[in-house]
Amino acid sequence: MDDLIASPHPEGRDNEPTETLRKRLVYESRKRGILEMDLILSTFANDRLAVMNDRELREYDRFLTLPDWTIFYYVTGKAEAPEPWRSSEVLGELLHHSANKGKNVRRMPDLDVK
């Protein structure tokens, strides 16, 4: 996975400050285009982004560059992700989050207005 993080970001965002990255990831997690992904990723982002370190944030950022349906199949376990994603800690957390074993009712998180 470190090789993936060390590779150039497909959209040229390698030098983005961590807090800017975190804020962008909140937005990108909410606005996927597929409602199911909006719900899964926005609730994941709400729960996890604040405590993720820089490496985890950049791994999640790379993951979000995948097509929506690919992400959907990987995070719901409908398809097995190829390497390097199969061994990704972030994907493991997403799989756990998506499984929602606690049967929590989820809704889109509110945006913090400042």
From TrEMBL:
Predominant location category: mitochondrion
A Pfam cross-reference name: Sdh5
InterPro entries (UniProt xref): SDH (IPR005631), SDH_sf (IPR036714), SDHAF2 (IPR028882)
Domain of life: Eukaryota
Family annotation (SUPFAM superfamilies): YgfY-like (SSF109910)
Gene Ontology biological process terms, A to Z: mitochondrial electron transport, succinate to ubiquinone; mitochondrial respiratory chain complex II assembly; tricarboxylic acid cycle
Feature: compositional bias, Basic and acidic residues: 10-20
Residue segments, region Disordered: 1-20
GO cellular component: mitochondrial matrix
Keyword hit for Membrane: no
UniProt record similarity statement: Belongs to the SDHAF2 family.
Subunit structure: Interacts with the flavoprotein subunit within the SDH catalytic dimer.
HAMAP family cross-referenced by the UniProt entry: SDHAF2
UniProt protein name: Succinate dehydrogenase assembly factor 2, mitochondrial
Species this chain originates from: Rhodotorula graminis (strain WP1)
Lineage: Eukaryota, Fungi, Dikarya, Basidiomycota, Pucciniomycotina
